[in-house]
Structures are given as structure tokens and as C-alpha cells.
Amino acid sequence: MIKRQILLWIGCFLFLGFTAQNDIPNIRLMDLKGKIFRINQLHKYKATVIVFLSPACPLCQSYTLTINQLIKKYNGKPIQFIGIIASKDFSVDDILNYKRSYKLNLNLVRDTERLLSKKLGATITPEAFLVGAMGEIKYSGRIDNWAYELGKKRTIITEHDLIDAIEAILSDKSVKTKKTKAVGCFIE
Fold it and tell me: Which end of the chain is more exposed for a tag (fewer CB within 10 A), N or C?
């Protein structure tokens, strides 16, 4: 009887933990046309890359090339990419100007109430999250180790954390490094 109760408690705990992460598709965001956007197609992909960005953050401006390269690299693979602007400070025109100026080939969505950023624990831009098909966080943190401190960048990138995590998921392996520290501008 006690074993059964323990198993029931463990099952409830696991279910509640799963549903807590799995409500990501229910969070209502706004696209740049003013329409409601939900990240509700997670199950169609092995993983979704969610990158928190700020048009005014110099690192977010610098990382647009890397983000575009990642999108191109994984084109045709079961990975989707979504950019999140988690601020009320930027108008749609500001965001579109950022996207145009840096030729960013990424679907950008507004999280003005910071519901998704709070849910995932995003605090920095740029900060990447790799979310599995069931809504579970597989990786969070920096894209790579190019920027290791504010204002300090490496000439040679030696760690490609987001790529490593994506490759692990595509190879049906577990992600070795699940969290790294993102460097950039604070989400305010």
C-alpha cells in the first residue's frame, strides 16, 4: 500500500512538472501584425529554438549573422526558430527596422507582458532556449562563447553551445550541457 502511494505521488509530481513546462503553447504573444501568436506547433518539431532579442542591444545586433547562419544550417531539419522581443519599449516599427537593418531571417514575436520570458526564466538578450517537442527545456543560455563578458569578445569561438544542443536532439541523444550563462543586455 505504501509503495502504491509513493508511486502515485511520484506520478503526480512528474505530471505537474510536465504540465508546468508544457503550458508554453498556451502563452499568448503578439506577432508583428498585431495578431495572437502561440508557440503551439512544438510537437511538429524535434525542438524549437527560442531566442530572446532586443533591437537596442549591441550583442543582439551582432548575433543576427550567427542566428541567420543557424537558420540556414538547419533549414529542412525538424527544428524551428522563433525570436522573442520581451519588452513594451519597442514599437512594431522599431522591431521591423531592426529586422530589416540586420537582414534577420527570423520570425519575431512580441512578449510585451513578459509571460514567456518569465515562464522560461529568460533574463538576458540574446539568450537562447531549446525546447523539446513536449515543451521541456533541453538547453538554455548563450548561443556560443564569442561574448564572454559585456564588451569582451573572443577572436575565435571555441564553444558552440546551442549547436551542440541542437545536434544532440537531432541525433536522439541527451544534451550534455543543459545550461550556460548568457551575456548581454538585461530584459527589463
Answer: N
22: helix, coil or strand? Answer: helix
What is the enclosing helix (H) or strand (E) of 50? strand 47-53
Name all contacts of 19-27 with Cβ < 8 Å and 24+ positions apart.
Answer: 21/134, 21/135, 21/136, 21/137, 22/134, 22/135, 22/136, 23/119, 23/135, 24/116, 24/119, 24/120, 24/131, 24/135, 25/135, 27/115, 27/116, 27/119
pLDDT tens sequence across 67-120 = 999 999 999 999 999 999 999 999 999 999 999 999 999 999 999 999 999 999
Q: What are phi and psi for residue 21, nearest 5 degrees?
A: -80, -30
Secondary structure letter of residue 182 according to DSSP: -
DSSP state of 80: E
Q: What CATH number labels 2-186?
A: 3.40.30.10
Domain locations in the chain as residue ranges? 2-186
Residue 159 phi/psi, 5-degree rounding, is -130, 125
3-state percent helix, strand, coil for the chain, nearest multiple of 5: 35, 25, 40
- The secondary structure element, H or E, covering residue 13 is helix 2-22
